[in-house]
Design brief:
By secondary structure, this protein is an alpha/beta fold. It is 32% helix and 25% strand. It has 2 domains: 74 residues, Transcription elongation factor, GreA/GreB, N-terminal domain (Helix Hairpins); 100 residues, Transcription elongation factor, GreA/GreB, C-terminal domain (Chitinase A, domain 3, Roll), CATH 3.10.50.30.
Length: 204
């Protein structure tokens, strides 16, 4: 009787995407990976030291070091996959100060009206459509960062002013309208763009 390999369902890998980032982002990713490697080396030393202390069944230091190594390994794997699956294009925010404003693009400040369907509730937001990972808000101007690869930005990019568009968002169907498009000021960019940091990646 022939043996059949057990079929195990695995979800498909995420498709490769292009992610726009600010200059220096790739360097931050590399530095994060190197920091994890150094941390792992120190944890292995702790594990070896704990192993030398005797009975592993009651050696909590050994177990803690082992768990910590596993957690670091998972973060390194997740970061490595994140880099391998995506292409990163660095964009200088200085170019956002004088962009054409015919359609909504990365780097624009836009006032957006969103009407939920069928509840008909209306919400109004002022966004700076920005690069990956930006989440800051500016109390002075009321502008919030909207990362270009977020679900809302994905349906807004390319729209023109005063063109209601029915879209499907994670929260449900909605009608979105771009009320205005303009370029940011240097002061707004200075307040909104924070220091670049490595992404918080979900471990799989």
């Amino acid at each position: 009787m022939s043996l059949r390999r057990k079929k195990i369902f695995r979800p498909p890998s995420p498709t490769a995407t292009t992610i726009y980032v600010r200059p220096g982002y790739n360097r931050v990713l590399a530095e994060e990976f190197e920091a994890l490697k150094r941390k792992r080396v120190e944890l292995v030393k702790d594990k070896v030291e704990a192993h030398s202390q005797g009975d592993l069944r009651e050696n909590f230091g050994f177990k803690a070091a082992k768990d910590a190594i596993r957690a670091v390994d998972q973060k390194m794997t997740a970061l490595d996959r994140f880099v391998a699956r995506n292409a990163f294009i660095e964009v200088d925010p200085a170019t956002w100060l004088a962009k054409p404003t015919d359609t909504l693009q990365l780097g624009h400040v836009a006032v957006i009206e969103k009407q939920d369907v069928p509840a008909r509730r209306r919400h109004r937001f002022t966004f700076l459509v920005t690069t990956h990972g930006e989440t800051a808000s500016d109390p002075e101007s009321g502008i919030e960062c909207l990362p270009h690869n977020s679900p809302l930005a994905a349906v807004l990019l390319g729209l023109t002013v005063d063109t209601p568009t029915k879209v499907m968002l994670p929260a449900g169907e909605a009608v979105v309208t771009v009320l205005s498009i303009r370029n940011p000021t240097q002061g707004e960019l200075d307040r909104l763009l924070t220091a670049i940091k490595a992404p918080e990646i979900e471990e799989s």
